[in-house]
Design brief:
Shape of chain A: globular
Strand content of chain A: under 5%
Strand content of chain B: 25-35%
Oligomer: heterodimer
Helix content of chain B: 25-40%
Structural class of chain B: alpha+beta
Helix content of chain A: over 70%
Largest sheet of chain B: 6 strands, mixed
Radius of gyration of chain A: 24 Å
CATH superfamily of the largest domain in chain B: P-loop containing nucleotide triphosphate hydrolases
Distance between the termini of chain B: 32 Å
Number of helices of chain B: 9
């Protein structure tokens, strides 16, 4: 209906405008640096063989991380989509938590757990009686891959398990009745039916790892492990080569843009089957084997996070202390003295950015669903393609044009940068929800004399609420854990929780970092619980 | 002037054009029937305002509503799909479109409507817990709560089981008779249209081809399409019976009396006689046998109480019950 589309277009205009402005202005500033002086910086970057080494390394680490994450996830997905057992749902929910765990916590957890003087090594040294660290993982290529797999394995596990559970097993049974073996059936029947989700899991993880920042900066620990994102940051913020950083941004934007477009168009449509798989109840030996697998999974996933909690209250030598907490509450000097400001500002920015994002995204998602438009997904892809470091760089360059001494302006810029980063995720989370609302439902409301506004308020929004809640939780977590853009944009005035943790790790104050990490973890958990509580509404 | 006037309305699509002209009296129960894709639902959506016509006008109660917004038309509709608002319970759904703001009035009205549709005490139920039949009854109550000038029903029962369908359709008819509201009811089920309606509009290929009451349309169809769409029958070229006559002769199976002996036309001057028909099929219909026969290469149907013992039989049809149809 034209009138309805006009209504949603009108309501979406502020969102579209903000999305475009917040994306175009910083990007234009970045690109103007890359293209100034007859594009000499860009030409230099393109003709520099080092650029290609960085690109190659970025693609390698992202490809390898995604591949390993998917391969590791496969056997677990098999178990979880074949058997039902007590605790299955809890593990699935826990895995979904990884979507809201800030990367900086993974970095911190890895440093505390896997570090040469970390908890795992201390434990192993005590057991083996060795005086040297038993496992040397950190500050190497394998640490990067391990952290990426750690962070993204649950995504692959969840996506594949969901698709596998939702696919009907009738075709498999038909294959068995035709005398085909389990192996042959798996490759000819099962795999093709879940191929789409395996590929989209791979692409998603690849893109995450392609723009990985904190993990490379801290856990790589070696300048030879440089990705496009970290190199942009280094050039622009450390070496002062703004034009060089801007040129790399342009190249990164082009590559990610092509990848995103390719993944968008190549994605297989997920068919919803009428019958889903009936899960077998795990019993006896099978149940024992299942729990063994679950324990292995938990032993991989939990220790780094739990070690953050431990280190927040215990010194390296295992002595209980509340030092870090006292410092946070005002008794400290240096970095930690800004902790309260960081906690409050992170919360305020995350709250405002995600509130603004869901308000703008709801109308945009409805428009996108009703018009079945390709424009909105495309617009929402743009900031993702640009990457948060580039956006942060753009905002920091913009800040240079605005003469300001007040920290409020700096925080305002951080808020805007976060908004443009979380807005696309909100749109992407709410749009599938908007698509589930049958247009006839809205028409039914109009036939009862209700206005467009009343229909949106009373019929559409309540149905969208679970998705809006999820989008809010997701955006909140994303903003709360944002390091890339904030660090690039930060001029020393700005203190957010993850930035502070990042700096504390850099100054080896693990105790302080762990205490703040605990707070960040608690916030992430609360937000996750709120998002999960949204659940699914009974939409038929 | 009629209550609803559809004046030369057309709606053009790339490969389909709808055109219709008809009128409906106040309080009339009109069924719109036709095969799939004949334009029944399109016609309804034009009247409702879900879609705009290419040309023509719609007059309701003396007022041209052709370009009015859906919200302002005050025409209720019951959709085939589940369109209850899942975020509200049964009572809230019904109260949604009510015009009165007084809480007590709204509650009483909702409870009366629920009583009317046979769902007393369902106020607080979640709409997602309703069965298909219950959901349609609530949709009906919700549409009536807005006190519409007219009610449209778009195949409201097609997703339900046959026994349930029967009970709800008689409920709909009795609600019509109680309230005296004008109803337009789209269905593809001939039997449903016959039993429930005051009059029937037949749609074919985007055109309204016939309008009348069920008996008129069944007994005196004006076209072969109407004849076959309203029931079983036989059409043979008229010249087989009457010399120099164009068109077709049409008769219903129940009007064709079977004889196992050859009949002498001289003895039955009021009848048309066909001798030496070959029985090619027999289908037991409960009330009798529907016999498929062949006469000089033309298929004929007859409803017989008994199963013929012979392969070759005769038929006699009262000449007055045969329709001469041009095309």
């Amino acid at each position: 209906m034209k009138e309805q589309q006009a209504y949603y277009t009108l309501r979406s205009l502020p969102g579209i405008l903000i999305l475009l402005l917040l994306f175009l202005i910083p990007i234009a500033v970045v690109f103007s640096y890359a293209l100034s002086d007859n594009a000499s910086a860009l030409i230099n970057t393109i003709s520099d063989s080092y650029t290609y080494r960085i690109i190659l390394f970025t693609v390698t680490e992202a490809g390898l991380s995604a591949l390993i994450a998917v391969i590791v996830a496969f056997p677990f997905a098999y178990i979880f989509s074949k058997y039902t057992f007590p605790g299955r749902k809890v593990i699935m929910t826990l895995s979904a938590l990884s979507f809201t765990i800030p990367t900086i916590l993974v970095v911190l957890g890895f440093v505390i757990w896997y570090g040469n003087n970390g908890l795992l090594n201390t434990l192993l040294m005590r057991i083996s009686g060795s005086k040297e660290p038993v496992l040397e993982i950190l500050y190497s290529f394998k640490a990067i891959i391990l952290a990426h797999v750690y962070l993204n394995f649950p995504i692959a596990f969840l996506l594949i398990t969901e698709a596998w559970t939702a696919s009907s097993d009738v075709a498999e049974k038909a294959s068995y009745t035709l005398g085909k073996s389990i192996r042959r059936t798996f490759f000819s029947v099962t795999l093709p039916s879940i191929k789409g989700s395996v590929i989209s899991a791979f692409i998603l993880i690849f893109l995450f790892c392609f723009s990985s920042f904190a993990i490379i900066m801290v856990l790589g620990g070696n300048p030879s492990y440089t990705t496009l994102e970290t190199e942009i940051y280094r050039r622009a913020r450390i070496s002062g080569d703004t034009a060089g950083g801007a040129s790399l941004s342009l190249i990164s934007f082009a590559i990610t843009g092509i990848l995103l477009l390719a993944s968008g168009y190549g994605r297989a449509k997920i068919k919803t089957e009428r019958k889903t798989r009936k899960l077998i109840k795990g019993r006896g030996k099978t149940l024992f084997a299942i729990y063994l697998c679950v324990i292995v999974m938990l032993l991989f996933l939990l220790p780094p996070l739990l070690s953050i909690l431990y280190r927040a209250f215990f010194t390296k030598n295992g002595v209980f202390t509340l030092r870090a907490w006292e410092e946070i509450l005002g008794g400290g000097f240096g970095l930690i003295s800004t902790a309260m400001e960081g906690i409050v500002m992170s919360f305020v920015i995350a709250f405002l950015a995600s509130a603004a994002a869901i308000i703008l995204a709801s109308s945009m998602a409805m428009l996108s669903a009703r018009k079945n438009s390709r424009l909105m997904p495309f617009l929402a892809t743009l900031p993702m393609a640009a990457g948060s470091v580039t956006l942060g760089l753009g905002f920091s360059m913009l800040a240079a044009y605005i003469p300001h001494s007040s920290t409020i302006v700096s925080y305002l810029l951080v808020f805007l940068a976060h908004l443009i980063i979380v807005l696309p995720f909100s749109i992407r989370t709410i749009t599938p929800g908007a698509r589930t609302i049958s247009p006839t439902l809205s028409l039914a409301s109009y036939t009862l004399g209700a206005s467009m506004g009343k229909t949106m308020r009373r019929v559409e929004m309540p149905l969208l609420r679970p998705y809006i809640k999820k989008a809010f939780a997701f955006s909140f977590a994303l903003s709360l854990g944002e390091v890339n853009a904030t660090l690039t944009l930060s001029d020393g005035h700005i203190t957010t929780l993850p930035i502070l943790i990042y700096r504390l790790i850099g100054s080896y104050d693990y105790q302080g970092a762990a205490a703040l990490g605990t707070i960040l973890l608690a916030e992430a958990l609360i937000v996750f619980a709120i998002g999960e509580k949204g659940g699914n509404n009974g939409i038929s | 002037m009629a209550y609803l006037e559809i004046q030369d309305i057309t709606k053009e699509y790339d490969n389909f054009t709808l055109s219709a002209s008809f009128s409906v009296e106040e309080g009339e129960f009109l069924c719109i029937i036709g095969p799939s894709g004949s334009g029944k639902s399109t016609l309804l959506s034009l009247i409702e305002g879900l879609d705009t016509p290419t040309s023509g006008s719609i007059i309701l109660d003396g007022k041209d509503i052709t370009s009015e917004r859906i919200q302002d038309r005050n025409i209720g509709i019951v959709f085939q799909d589940f369109t209850l608002f899942p975020s509200m319970n049964v009572e809230k759904n019904i109260e949604y479109g009510m015009k009165t703001e007084k809480k007590a009035d709204r509650k009483r009205f909702a409870s009366n409507l629920l009583k009317l549709v046979g769902l007393e005490g369902y106020e607080k139920r979640a709409v997602t817990s309703l069965s298909g039949g219950e959901a349609q009854r609530v949709q009906l109550a919700r549409a009536l709560a807005a006190e519409p000038k007219m009610l449209l029903l778009d195949e409201p029962l097609s997703a339900l089981d046959p026994p349930l369908r029967k009970s709800i359709r008689s409920a709909i008819r009795s609600i019509h008779d109680t309230l005296g509201i004008t109803m337009l009811y789209v269905t593809h089920d001939r039997e449903e249209a016959f039993t429930i309606s005051d009059s029937i509009l037949i749609m074919h290929d985007g055109k309204a081809v016939a309008k009348g009451n069920a008996e008129e349309l069944y007994r005196h169809p004006e076209s072969l399409f109407t004849a076959f769409f309203t029931g079983e029958g036989t059409a043979i070229p008229a010249y087989l019976v009457y010399e120099n006559t164009d068109g077709y002769l049409f008769f219903r199976p129940e009007d064709a009396v079977l004889s196992e002996e050859p009949l002498d036309p001289e003895l039955y001057p009021m009848h048309v006689i066909f001798n030496d028909l070959e029985v090619v099929s027999e289908a037991f219909m409960g009330s009798g046998y529907l016999l498929g026969m062949e006469y000089q290469g033309y298929p004929m149907l007859s409803l017989s109480h008994t199963k013929p013992r012979k392969k070759h039989v005769s038929l006699m049809i009262l000449a007055a019950s045969m329709q001469n149809i041009a095309q």
